Amino acid sequence: MTDNELISKYLEGDETALKSLIERYLKPIYSFVYRLTGNGQDAEDISQEVFVKVWKNLNKFDESKSFKTWLFTIAKNTAYDSLRKKKEIVFSDLEDEDGEGGVEEEISDSEILPEMALIKSEDVAGLEAAIKKLPFNYRAVIFLKETEELTFDEIGRILNKPLNTVKSHYRRAILRLRKILI
Amino acid sequence: MSQKHIIFRHIDPPKDLLEEIFNKIDKNSRQRAGAKLFASMLGATSSLGIFVFVFRYAAEVFLESGAYSYLSLLFSDPSFVLSYSNGLALSIIESAPVLEISILFFAVYAFLGSFKYAVENMGNLSLKNRLA
């Protein structure tokens, strides 16, 4: 059953449909939030908050849009608010570059950047530590792209950023990781 | 499995997280139903009070009105009523306390609506159809 079908069933009174929807997205949301916060307890708390928000607002969800995008938007905003409250995000973490310039515009959704291919097996732990040092939006872009395999357009909607900014974040994140690892 | 997949894998959430989420939603759901129940019972009580007050007032006004006098004729002299039925009907309508009767109907409607809402929310507070 598609997400929209489950939502429709739930809104008609079928509670099991909501249960199925949550089960479907629990692991992706928990993983995403864990990567943003770097902390298991925070990821648990935020994941709970995300799904409660989803439940509260499901009757307002526009079924012409993507549920996945909407869900990850809530997750990103909730994680961001949580980190801000704990003052783990500073203003410089936002780095609002608009990505002007031809290089970022040329990145397609299916392209694997050469830098990614350079990651060797012994770099895995180092890479995870390096990712934690990236600004918040860079981390979000990286994981939405690599783990959730969303398009740059979808990521842009989640982060509420223009397409070129998202591509710029992605490219700069990869370059920073490469710099840290070398 | 490529290095990329290992680094960007999904992470297994704690085993009880799913149940915790369902418990939290259930708790929120009950709180919501409780608040709605309180509001609807308050509404029902208020509208019942208004109904009683308006009913008494409407009854007083009606008893003092010409409509009551005309209606009394119905029971005391039915033949007179049959002869002058058109005029009598118009007289009753003209002298009836329309405003008070309208308010009375509104109070009844508000009370029944609040009561129905209260009964629905009592159902929501029950333990049926819980997620957890």
Query: How many domains comprise the coordinates of chain B?
Result: 1
Which spans of chain A of ≥5 residues are poorly predicted at pLDDT below 50?
96-105
Instruction: Give the overall form of chain B.
Output: rod-shaped
What's the number of extended β-strand segments of chain A? 0
Whole-angstrom Rg of chain B? 30 Å
What share of residues are in beta strands of chain A? under 5%
User: Can you give the helix content of chain B as a percent range?
Assistant: over 70%
Count of helix runs of chain A: 10
Helicity of chain A, in percent?
Answer: 55-70%
Number of helices of chain B: 6
Per CATH, the architecture of the largest domain in chain A is: Orthogonal Bundle
Q: Regarding CATH, which class of the largest domain in chain A?
A: Mainly Alpha
Topology of chain A as a string of helices (H) and strands (E):
HHHHHHHHHH
Written account of the structure:
The complex is a heterodimer of chains A (182) and B (132). Chain A has helices at 3-11, 15-37, 40-57, 67-85, 102-105, 114-117, 124-132, 136-146, 152-159, 163-181. In chain A, 68% of the residues lie in helices and 0% in strands. Chain A folds into two domains: 3-85, Rna Polymerase Sigma Factor, Chain: A (Orthogonal Bundle), CATH 1.10.1740.10; 99-181, Arc Repressor Mutant, subunit A (Orthogonal Bundle), CATH 1.10.10. Chain A is mainly alpha-helical and 182 residues long. Chain B has one domain. Chain B starts with a helix and ends in an 8-residue tail after the last helix. Helix content of chain B is 82%, strand content 0%. Chain B has helices at residues 3-7, 17-64, 66-76, 78-83, 85-95, 98-124. Chain B has 132 residues and is mainly alpha-helical. Classes of the chains: A mainly alpha (182), B mainly alpha (132). The interface between A and B is medium-sized, with 33 and 22 residues.
